[in-house]
């Protein structure tokens, strides 16, 4: 049994229509056992960010050893290691890991330290294969060999982009061939594109994404324009790097539609950076049909940090991928190379089956969690926007478990530096942890919102986390605060 949390309080008290004490995800009736998870049981009720509801084919059921649904007090106990003084509404950055999974990880760590040779020769490869098999079913890949486990999505990006760099170096690509990426791509991935593609002689074209955004059509329009630029003068587009959920600002991208457009326009390969996706929105490899796809399991799938999967489609074009850290398994396939990159702690990669047991304690499994988190993120975002007289950064159907909320203009956010200073001020003086975004006004724009907060909702969050943030901003506004009053 998980330890009793040292602090008390309801798991969630929503003054609107939500009460997780009566929410089906937190049913306390042990007479309703949850033995199996079908990841698409609730697909017809869950939006993946497209402008319509997707109906996916059923995936294989994933077995679980859990026999009863989790209760609100058990959820509270699973996350009682969180600092109770902080309104933690930033799950998107580092994720969260329940106590039961942390304990399972610690057992594995001690098993290795007790007899590392036995662990290496008899446990490690089999354990990683079990985790890869669970992931394969979760993402609806055709073969387990298409799934490799790596540290994080940044590592996965380096693996894919390293292959592109070698193609330039070996003369398979011509200097000036093109890679397309979103303007709002994650900063580390943009740096990787610079290091591997630009340095090798490739040309990088960024898709200028609108924000705030009102529809998928706006994104698709800008993406097509970038493809047209990429094909000018007979150039070939060798790679498109597409986010599934952009990090900052946070928007769910119509990734399936963009992949289809890439196929129609002759783009060689498509890599989807979906760091936030698994556990947050629908992830189906056969439906999305990208060549490469990566997602972190420590963000929204409750794994300890750090672990991600890299899917590479079974295709001649997707061969010859290698881990950037070369070790004894080099040449035995990416999955094997990634399973041993030297002596290190592999426990995060081994607890995926235990994480699945935790997820399956919620009614509907991960599908139920995704729907609850999405609904609550939208409701909390709308509550904050109404309280501040602002707006959301995108329609509800274009967000998953995170949403962008405009901040009052009187805060005078005028630079990226202002967002960092204000974020630190909220952390240190109000106990609120939330990332902030500066949206520079365009030419001719007057009186627009320049500051946005990216709020997350995960199962451990409660209504008070968001009212604490609301009240902190209201106090700053009431006190006449502006960002130029903060020192660097």
Give structural notes.
This is Aminotransferase class V domain-containing protein. Keywords: Pyridoxal phosphate, Signal. The protein has a domain at 108-355: Aspartate Aminotransferase, domain 2, CATH 3.40.640. Helices cover 38% and strands 12% of the residues. It has helices spanning 72-78, 91-94, 99-114, 116-139, 153-169, 187-198, 216-230, 255-264, 285-288, 297-300, 334-339, 347-350, 352-359, 365-388, 416-430, 463-478, and strands at 36-37, 62-63, 87-88, 147-150, 178-182, 203-207, 237-243, 269-273, 292-296, 308-312, 402-406, 432-433, 436-438, 451-456. α3 packs antiparallel against α4 (116-139), α5 (153-169) packs parallel to α6 (187-198) and α14 runs parallel beside α16 (463-478). The longest helix is centred in the N-terminal third of the chain and has 24 residues, at 116-139. With 488 residues, the protein is of the alpha/beta class. The chain is globular and about 65 Å long. The relative contact order is 0.16. Strands 4-10-9-8-7-5-6 form a 7-stranded mixed β-sheet, sandwiched between helices. It is built from 16 helices and 14 strands.
């Amino acid at each position: 049994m998980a330890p009793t949390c040292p602090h008390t309080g309801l798991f969630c008290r929503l003054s609107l229509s939500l009460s997780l004490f009566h929410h089906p995800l937190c049913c306390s009736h042990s007479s309703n056992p949850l033995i199996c998870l079908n990841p698409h049981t609730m697909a017809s009720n869950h939006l993946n960010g497209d402008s319509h509801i997707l109906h996916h084919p059923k995936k294989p059921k994933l077995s679980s050893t859990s026999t009863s649904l989790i209760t609100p007090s058990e959820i509270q106990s699973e996350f009682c290691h969180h600092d109770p003084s902080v309104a933690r509404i930033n799950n998107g950055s580092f994720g969260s890991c329940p106590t039961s999974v942390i304990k399972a990880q610690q057992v594995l760590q001690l098993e290795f330290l007790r007899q590392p040779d036995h662990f290496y020769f008899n446990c490690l490869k089999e354990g990683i294969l079990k985790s890869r098999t669970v992931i394969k079913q979760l993402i609806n890949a055709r073969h387990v060999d298409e799934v490799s486990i790596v540290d994080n999505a940044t590592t996965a990006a380096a693996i894919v982009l390293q292959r592109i760099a070698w193609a330039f170096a070996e003369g398979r690509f011509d200097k000036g061939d093109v890679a397309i990426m979103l303007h709002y791509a994650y900063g580390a991935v943009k740096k990787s594109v610079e290091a591997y593609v630009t340095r090798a002689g490739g040309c990088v074209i960024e898709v200028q994404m609108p924000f705030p955004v009102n529809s998928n059509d706006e994104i698709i329009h800008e993406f097509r324009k970038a493809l047209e630029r990429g094909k000018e003068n007979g150039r070939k587009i060798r790679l498109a790097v597409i986010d599934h959920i952009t990090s900052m600002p946070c928007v769910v991208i119509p990734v399936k539609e963009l992949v289809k457009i890439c196929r129609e326009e002759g783009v060689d390969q498509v890599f989807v950076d979906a760091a936030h996706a698994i556990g947050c929105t629908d992830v189906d490899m056969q439906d999305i049909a990208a060549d490469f796809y990566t997602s972190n399991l420590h963000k929204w799938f409750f794994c300890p940090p750090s672990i991600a999967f890299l899917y590479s489609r079974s295709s001649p074009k997707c061969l010859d991928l290698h881990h950037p850290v070369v070790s004894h398994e080099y040449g035995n396939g990416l999955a094997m190379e990634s399973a041993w990159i030297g002596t290190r702690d592999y426990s995060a990669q081994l607890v995926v089956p235990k994480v699945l047991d935790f997820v399956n304690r919620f009614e509907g499994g991960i599908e139920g969690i995704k729907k609850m988190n999405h609904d609550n993120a939208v409701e909390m975002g709308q509550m904050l926007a109404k309280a501040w007289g602002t707006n959301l950064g995108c329609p509800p159907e274009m967000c998953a478990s995170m949403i962008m909320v405009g901040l009052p203009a009187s805060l005078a956010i005028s630079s990226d530096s202002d967002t960092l200073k204000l974020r630190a001020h909220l952390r240190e003086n109000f106990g609120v942890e939330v990332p902030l975004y500066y949206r520079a006004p365009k030419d001719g724009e007057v009186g627009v919102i320049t500051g946005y907060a990216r709020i997350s909702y995960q199962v451990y969050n409660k209504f008070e986390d968001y009212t604490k943030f609301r009240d902190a901003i209201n106090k700053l506004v009431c006190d006449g605060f502006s960002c130029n009053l903060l020192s660097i």
